[in-house]
Amino acid sequence: MRVLVSVDMEGVAGVTSPTDVMPGTDEYRRFRELMTAEANAAGAGAFDGGATAVTVTDSHDRMRNVLYETLDPRAHLVSGPVRPLEMVEGARQADCAIFLGYHAPGGTPRSVLAHTLSVTIRRLQLDGVAVGETELGARVCAQFGVPVGLVTGDDGLAQSLRHTMPSTPTLVVKDSLAYGTARMRPRGEVLAAIADATRAAVASPPPRPAPPPGPVTVTVDFLHPALIETVGLIPTVTAIDPATVTYTAPDMVSAAQVLGICTLVAEDAMRAAHLW
Ligand SMILES: [Zn+2]
Fold first, then answer.
1. What phi, psi does 116 have (nearest 5°)?
2. Residues of the chain above pLDDT 70, percent
3. pLDDT by residue (tens digit) across 71-102?
4. Fewer CB under 10 Å: which end of the chain, C or N?
5. 129 CA to middle of ligand 1, Å?
6. Could you tell me which residues are beta bridge partners of residue 176?
7. Helix (H, G, I), strand (E, B) or coil at 103
8. Long-range contacts of range 234-239, CB-CB < 8 Å, 24 or more positions apart?
9. Distance, CA 141 to ligand 1 centroid (Å)?
10. 228 CA to centre of ligand 1 in angstroms
């Protein structure tokens, strides 16, 4: 049983502020340690549940946050931003995936740091259904028949997944009161619960999902029409209204890869237009 642990940062217990997850800030140093501790709790649970190999895939920002020196010495680590499967790199070689520290989609009310991939994106839809990063990663994993055995984050995330991934177990590690405020659960309880839930997920993983039938239509609403002027230049990507693009990809992997390119281009356009 090979386990992929994809770890984002906004949904880690303790995190509330954008500066907590922003490389270069004083707070960020602390939260890298908390992120690594959650990855270690999941790793320990996975090995207890029968994992033969655990790969921790760093999935936040430039994807080089997890501290290798304090990571469980039995775990592999994927670190760095350029990778074919982005937040779920390693899915090709996995039997079960665990998503740690994930967050609710952009627009979710009262949910810590809720967003979808980038500050440039207002809404993401796959085949007409609004989704966040969790559903996107789960669909890429499904392309390889890999089930998601557990998702952790705040209560806003757990609630949003009730509609889109109702059979996937979730673990709430903090209760959000606002975009930048949460009531933390005791840290010892959180780490023990992550280990327990991961052990249970690995010991009896969900059934292997069928690969989503292609093609996939992706629709992205951006925050500002200026972003469309450049994103719309990407071949296969078509502007359908002043702030929305759409494209159709043959499968989930290429759908996610084109989305990654759209996001990079939109962020560059946003900087060029001094919109942030
Ligand atoms: Zn993140």
1. -125, 100
2. 100
3. 999 999 999 999 999 999 999 999 999 999 99
4. C
5. 22
6. 182
7. coil
8. 234/258, 234/261, 234/262, 234/265, 237/262
9. 18
10. 23
- Nearest 5°: the CA angle 29, 35, 39 is 145
**Ligand 1 centre from 116 Cα, in Å?**
9
Give the predicted TM-score (pTM) of the model. 0.96
CA angle 208, 210, 211 (to 5 degrees): 120
| Structure tokens belonging to residue 94 | 């996995």
Distance 185 CA to ligand 1 centre (A): 21
- The residues with which 181 forms a beta bridge, in sequence order, are 178
CB 132 within 8 A of CB 106: yes
Structural tokens at position 49:
């549940």
The answer as to CATH 3.30.70.3340 being correct for domain 2-115+133-203 is no
Residue 214 in this model has a pLDDT that exceeds 90: no
Place of tokens 């946003």: 270
Task: Give the angle subtended at the CA of 33 by the CAs of 203 and 165, to the nearest 5°.
Answer: 40
Give CA separation, 274 vs 30, 65, 127, 224, 271, in Å.
30, 27, 32, 12, 5
Contacts of 216 (CB under 8 A, 6+ apart): 126, 127, 139, 248, 249, 250, 251, 252, 255
- Rounded to the nearest whole angstrom, what is the distance from the C-alpha of residue 191 to the centroid of ligand 1? 19
Between strands 216-222 and 121-126, the pairing is antiparallel
